TrEMBL record:
Species per Swiss-Prot/TrEMBL record: Caulifigura coniformis
First-level EC class: transferase
Top-rank taxon: Bacteria
InterPro entries: AceGlu_kinase-like_sf (IPR036393), ACT-like_dom_sf (IPR045865), ACT_Aspartokinase (IPR054352), ACT_dom (IPR002912), AKii-LysC-BS (IPR041740), Asp/Glu/Uridylate_kinase (IPR001048), Asp_kin_monofn (IPR005260), Asp_kinase (IPR001341)
Catalytic activity of the protein: L-aspartate + ATP = 4-phospho-L-aspartate + ADP
Protein's name in the database: aspartate kinase
Length: 597
């Protein structure tokens, strides 16, 4: 008999009526011939209320007691849901994380799942009961209660689906499914029928609150089909699966992270080891870095900027000050009142002109871009917070995401065939690595790739005002040059620096196009380097595990290799180095991540 996991978020069990509705759905699924495991969150704003209550008692609640407190929200709701099921005439057993055997590490308030025992759940299911599992919690080796971090019930649900080999994991919520962007912010947002794990991972980690990114990591690692569905109707929702829709748009969705802060380390030494020290200091404080922007150095000093949630700013500044002390040079700058606006879509792998279109729509809205970073399937920009919602609406409309998908794509010229070439070998590699994991949530690094086919172009001293990036990238796109990485730092004295990488065969054409645009800015300078290599560490959980950057940059530092550019995503962390050092860097990274060449 197939197992279906059904997760109900806080909004979907907020009242007795909603609890009964959730119970009816589980009962109907059981009566249709499935075994059912429900995962339930705390009712409504219960978790927030408990957090506020603790704050009234003390400024720094002990993490162990915080987890003891927060886990009660879910304990209340599972009991109520189990009662509701029993009144409908079916057997039900509510279980806490500890009673199930969800074993975690001891990092209170952000624990990671190590193992899950299926014995108790299977026994209950075999006795004909619906299992009602408390989301968001587990226990450590000493049976201390731990929680998985805010929004963690999605992670519980996907992890239970993985260990039970469920046919599907359904996430019931207060919207029809996954939308092109948050429907609360953009009323024209449309529901997506199907989206790939990779796109959903990016969307979730870039700010789309509908799913917790760690739960998509589980889904991808253990190939769990996920479906986001409305709790209030029979809508089919959105399927999250290995691949997205066939007739996919170039851009599938937009995400906004409103409460970001920027931290920059300026004037730091441009030498091997710098990034290793920076990342080690961040990892030591478990600070998850969002957008990392390191641009080519000038005058012997380098600069790295990154964004963090504003709530992590104080801790990040301390870590950054420690890093500067360790480096013996540089200073720390920071900026608040910024927001991160990102576009996501696998179509970017094959189409040119996507960045230009995004930048142009921001320019048309009078929005200045303070920082840019890209990965193969996303482009993130840092903009001022007071303009961010308007910017979100403008970019959404510019990509015609408010229109049905069967219309011709709004942008982009296909430059590369779509075929997913080595997808099956990637799946095999992933499976091999996952099968050897000691703990379920351990980081997965499946490959280290060396790309020697690219060239770098850097434009310095360009004016820092709306429309500049749009002009630059429109010119390149109009010339049909496919841009891979884009990195733009925060500006200094009204001047910014942008670097991009292109296929080496396109370098001459790209330079011609860029020169023409740059000629209108008297102070701007253009440099290029056809001799670069890009190293990419590929895996799952690269951003949520803060130690990957540290390990990567430590390995490059130990091999005395200097880093020119960095870009990161959920599934890839890349660094540009001199081509002459590419092979050595590749070997060093394979060794650091215990992979065979
Ligand atoms: N791309 C998106 N698609 C759908 N919903 C989104 C998206 N981005 C943000 N959201 C928001 O996520 C909310 C659902 O998540 P959440 O409030 O955590 O629900 P739950 O309590 O069910 O876990 C929606 O109400 C919606 O406003
Ligand atoms: N109750 C927890 C866990 C959770 O995932 O909730 P929800 O499914 O309502 O986002 C929280 O508020 O963080």
């Amino acid at each position: 008999m197939s197992i279906i996991v059904q997760k109900f978020g806080g909004t979907s069990v907020a009242t007795a009526q909603k609890i009964l509705a959730a119970a009816r759905r589980a009962v109907a699924t059981k009566r249709a011939g499935h075994q059912v495991v429900m995962v339930v969150s705390a009712r409504g704003h219960k978790t927030d209320e408990l957090v506020d209550l603790a704050a009234e008692i003390t400024d720094s609640p002990p993490p162990r007691e915080m987890d003891m407190l927060l886990s009660t929200g879910e304990q209340e709701s599972v009991a109520l849901v189990a009662m509701a099921i029993q009144t409908l005439g079916e057997k039900a057993v509510s279980l806490t994380g500890g009673q199930i055997g969800i074993q975690t590490d001891t990092s209170y308030t952000k624990a990671r799942i190590r193992n899950i025992s299926t014995d108790r759940m299977r026994r209950c299911l075999d006795e004909g009961a619906i299992v009602v599992a408390a989301g968001f919690q587990g226990v450590d080796d000493d049976l201390n209660i731990t929680t998985l971090g805010r929004g963690g019930s999605d992670t519980t649900a996907t992890a239970l689906a993985a260990v039970l080999r469920a046919a599907e994991c359904e996430i019931y919520t207060d919207v029809e499914g996954v939308f092109t962007t948050d429907p609360r912010l953009v009323k024209d947002a449309r529901k997506v029928g199907r989206i790939s794990y990779d796109e959903m991972l990016e969307m979730a980690s870039l700010g789309a609150g509908v799913m917790h990114s760690r739960s998509i990591e589980f889904a991808k690692k253990f190939a769990v089909p996920l479906r986001v569905r409305p709790a209030y109707s029979d809508g089919a929702g959105t399927l999250i699966a290995p691949e997205g829709d066939e007739d996919q748009r170039v851009v599938s969705g937009l995400a906004l992270a409103r409460n970001e802060a920027r931290v920059s380390l300026v004037g730091i030494p441009d030498r091997p080891g710098t990034m290793a020290i920076v990342f080690a200091n961040m990892a030591a404080r478990k600070i998850p870095i969002d957008m990392v922007v390191q641009n080519v150095a000038q005058g012997g000093t380098a600069e790295v900027s990154f964004t963090v949630p504003q709530s992590d700013l104080a801790e990040t500044l301390t870590a950054a000050e420690d890093a500067v002390k360790g480096l013996g040079a540089g200073r720390v700058e920071s900026g608040t009142a910024v927001a991160k606006l990102s576009i996501v879509g696998v179509g970017m792998r094959t189409h040119s002109g996507v960045a230009a279109h995004m930048f142009q729509s921001l320019a048309d809205a009078g929005v200045n871009i303070q920082m840019i970073t890209t990965s193969e399937i996303k482009i993130s920009t840092l903009v001022s917070r007071d303009q961010c919602e308007e910017a979100l609406r403008k970019v959404h409309a510019a990509f015609k995401l408010d229109k049905p998908t069967n219309e011709p794509p709004a942008v982009g010229v296909r430059q590369k065939p779509a075929g997913n070439g080595d997808a099956s070998s990637q799946k095999r590699l992933l499976h091999e690595v996952v099968s050897k994991l000691a703990a379920m949530e351990d980081i997965v690094v499946s490959e280290v790739l060396l790309d020697e086919s690219q060239a770098r172009v850097t434009i310095s001293e360009i004016p820092d005002s709306p429309g500049i990036s749009a002009q630059l990238f429109s010119a390149v796109a109009d010339g049909d040059v496919m841009v891979d990485m884009i990195v733009q730092n925060q500006s200094h004295s009204g001047r910014a620096r942008v670097s991009l990488t292109v296929d080496r065969a396109d370098l001459e054409r790209c330079l011609l196009l860029v020169r023409e645009v740059v000629s209108q800015w008297p102070e701007a300078t253009l440099t290029y380097d056809p001799e670069i290599a890009t190293l990419s560490v590929v895996g799952i959980g690269l951003r949520t595990h803060t130690g990957v950057g540290e390990r990567m940059f430590r390995a490059l530092a130990d091999a005395s290799i200097n880093i020119q550019l960095i870009n990161t995503s959920e599934m890839r962390m890349s660094a540009v180095v001199a081509r002459s050092e590419g092979k050595k860097a590749h070997e060093a990274l394979l060794k650091a991540f215990s992979l065979n060449s």
